[in-house]
Amino acid sequence: MKTLSTLKFANSYSELAASLGTPIMPQPLKHPSLVHFNPLIAEKIELDPVVALDTRFIDIFSGNTILADMSPLAMKYSGHQFGQYNPDLGDGRGLLLGEVVTSAGKKWDLHLKGSGKTPYSRMGDGRAVLRSSVREYLASAAMAGLGIPTTHALAIISSQTSVIRENLETAATLVRVAESHLRFGHFEYLFYTGQHQQLQQLADYVIEHHFPELASAPSPYASLFKQICQRTATMIAAWQAVGFAHGVMNTDNMSILGLTFDYGPFGFIDDYEPSYICNHSDYSGRYAFDQQPSIGLWNLSALGYAFTPLLDKTEIDDGLEHYQHQLQQQYSHNMRQKLGLTITDETDTRLFSDLFQLLKQYQVDYTLFFRTLSQVSIDELPHGEHHFNALFQCTLALKTWLACYQQRLQLEPDTRQRLTIMRQHNPKYILRNYLAQQAIEEAEQGNYQLIDQLITVLAHPFDEHEDAEKLAQLPPHWGKHLEISCSS
After folding, report:
1. What is the pTM of this model?
2. Could you read off the pLDDT of 153-186 as tens digits, one per residue?
3. Which of 252, 270, 282, 365 is catalytic?
4. 159: CB partners within 8 A, 6+ apart
């Protein structure tokens, strides 16, 4: 394990085209203090967790100083926002501080969110607020615990600096850790500005640092695009299976590594509603929960267009077709695991369709339904409707579906591990909006106990955690109707 002074840095991104970013120093926060530190993320970069007690840690990640080997840089990119191309994007409130290299040679970006104004801040102040920092900190931990590809967050730093949003709020910084912060928008920026040589250099950089096995492929760039399509499909299939809505799937929020990126107005579904819109600012429902798979294809098509200096149409179409196939295959696999099914049968589509119709019709909590089903044995199924009394009253439709489910299970070669499999793929705990809101409100009063409890539970969301049962309960009525917008 390393100290702050012995971290090894390699600032490879800053060696790319100068147009891809601007070197700039972070702007300090007043009287910073540590809100929370995640030792699991420290372990990824081989950083000794004891550094959280070091005042230098707070100074570095509040913008008051930097380590000698850091090379702070605001990234430049563009992207499609709600379907419209916007050339005027980039790290408007964040900086890539540097790239930590582990003893095994793995590279991790250290990114400071809320570090002050940059050339890409437009009309913003470049700050993050405590509210949004807590949401992203908890969300990244929740997704990691669920096994969904994501960026991570090492720590939150609060301050006595005030900023104005809808109201006067506390400025904070979030220390984000990721294998890469490269977005679809990086390639779009180079394409639309005619920097095609630099676009090829960026593609070479991605292959070298993240997909070295593709360097010897017959068509490395086609293989790269296909790999991005596959990773995006895997990520979105995982979102759909667990009931996660991102909220702002602009191309500048899409990772070329298929990582869940830029948590803003995200939400996990409570009562099952396929057209759930978690972003209060998404008036048309472009990024509704059930639109995410098609938006993934739209975004990849935009990326494919940016790849046209490197690929022909056939290669781009092949990648997009691969996305659709991979998404369907992976989603079907994920959903079968949620029902403890190990083989595929032609009746599966109808079984899931009827289930989703049932959940929607009776507004059943998505997470708790599957978790409850994970406790019901095969023998109990025909008369097991009483297990669901807390979710919705017994109905003929439920009994009918449970009977069909039992009949489907009879086709399985071995059902002895069914409940174990289901409990490994149906979380008991998710980051519901009301829990995040409660954690925010307590943090604004200087109480970080709920953040600590949530980080512990969300790291292992499939375990029982009997001392944290209240975090797995149905949300209160007010908790289902919180309005979350991009300003979060």
Report:
1. 0.97
2. 999 999 999 999 989 999 999 999 999 999 999 9
3. 252
4. 29, 30, 31, 32, 33, 62, 170, 171, 172, 173
